[in-house]
Amino acid sequence: MSRTLFTVGPVHVETATLQAMTKPMITHRCKEYKELHAGIVEKIQKALNTDMDVFLVGGSATVMLEAAIRNGVANNSLGITNGSFGNRSIELGELNGKNVTKVEVPWGKAIKPEHIAGKVTKDIEAVHWVSNESSTGVFSDSTAIAKEARAQNPDSLVMVDAVTSAFAMDLKIPDLDPDSLVFGTQKALALPPGLAIMLCSERLLDKAKTVPNRGFYGDLLKIKKQADVDYALTTPPVSLMYALDYQLDKALAEGMQTRYRRHQEMADMLRNWANKKLNGVFPEEGYQSNSIGVLNKGDMDFDAFNSKLKAKGYEISNGYGDVKEKTFRIGHMGDTTPEMMKQLLSVMDEILEE
Questions:
Q1: What is the pLDDT of residue 2?
Q2: Are the CB atoms for 284 and 127 separated by under 8 Å?
Q3: Distance CA 120, CA 109 (A)
Q4: pLDDT value, residue 1
Q5: Is 219 strand, coil or helix?
Q6: Which of 228, 125, 135 is nearest to 179 (CA)?
Q7: Most buried by CB count within 10 Å: which residue of 81, 133, 185, 197?
Q8: Residue 76 burial (CB < 10 Å; 0-12/13-18/19+)?
Q9: CB under 8 Å to 97, separation ≥6 — which residues?
Q10: DSSP 3-state of 125
Q11: φ, ψ for residue 176, nearest 5 deg
């Protein structure tokens, strides 16, 4: 049976969005494709209030997270982690032969400027972290972290994983001024998975010119050359791009600040419910995600609870990583509405009463 997804990703996709993918196929080297590509780039720039380069690459967001490190780091980076996906960003560097200095923040706590005090030395070419940690539901102030990193080493690049924050929370990109900011289609854009998106700075492109062994698929200089004429480097998922274009029109029509407030409202509803009905939420106060609720499980049998939810047409996510056994997660991003959240909470109330 079909279920409404309140998972961390992929997320619920509206029927009309899926329908947008059914337009006739075009080749990725024709005039119509160029118009589609250019329009998507322009709409992303408008939505996120930036004039940075926008790169579109087939794959999950991880392909562009890896590209950022391969292109922007010849030798040394500083990786900050407060959860599973921060650990992954460090692993991406290490598996590509980079020397990654680790800064480990306790799970459930936000990354703060003081965590990197004195650590962004002159040999650190880039600092990378996750803005919204999916395993813990912690949203860190990336602008403050970037400011501290640059105060210590103005030449160090800033690389932000915004996979579950972009289009759900205001990242204040002009103030953040990232060198790479990466997200994908299957989270707050409420699309099927398959397209990675990067905002890329001129600083990162200049650095890439000095870094050997950038590979092919994620070579930002090759991607930039094609992007400048509204093409993708390799064959893109054209059908998914039709749906992305459709979703961007919806986001702009809604208004980005209205969109951010909607996500805040859903997050507040879930947190209030968790405080009343269960054992509250896992992340520290003041740094809680507006796209993912990570709830303390207590003595709940999650598998049984989620099975009953599925039988009623809903699905949520188990905990992840080191906190898997004591938490579970509810995604509320993209096209999910407060009314849909009310319905989910009502069904969860029924199951708890049972």
A1: 81
A2: no
A3: 21
A4: 59
A5: coil
A6: 125
A7: 133
A8: middle
A9: none
A10: coil
A11: -65, -45
Structure tokens at 257: 């600040």
**Token code pair at residue 162:** 């915004």
pLDDT in tens, 70-91: 999 999 999 999 999 999 999 9
| Token output for 314 | 């809903």
pLDDT in tens, 279-314: 999 999 999 999 999 999 999 999 999 999 999 999
Element (H, E) at 81: strand 76-81
Pairing state between β 314-315 and 4-5: parallel
- pTM comes to 0.97
Q: Is the dihedral of CA 256, 262, 268, 271 positive or negative?
A: negative
**Which tokens in the block code for residue 169?**
């929370």
pLDDT tens-digit map of 27-83 = 999 999 999 999 999 999 999 999 999 999 999 999 999 999 999 999 999 999 999
Judging by DSSP bridges, how do beta strands 195-200 and 317-318 pair with one another?
unpaired
Are the beta carbons of 173 and 181 closer than 8 angstroms? Answer: yes
- Give the list of residues 6+ apart from residue 248 with CB closer than 8 angstroms, or none: 40, 43, 44, 47
**For tokens 């922007």, what's the residue?**
72
- Listing DSSP states for 27-78 in one string gives -TTSHHHHHHHHHHHHHHHHHHT--SEEEEEES-THHHHHHHHHHH-SSEEE
265 is written with which tokens? 């409202």
Cis geometry, peptide bond prior to residue 10 (ω within 30 degrees of 0): yes
Q: For the chain, where are the alpha helices, taking DSSP H only? A: 15-20, 31-48, 62-72, 84-95, 142-152, 173-176, 202-208, 220-227, 238-254, 256-277, 302-311, 338-353
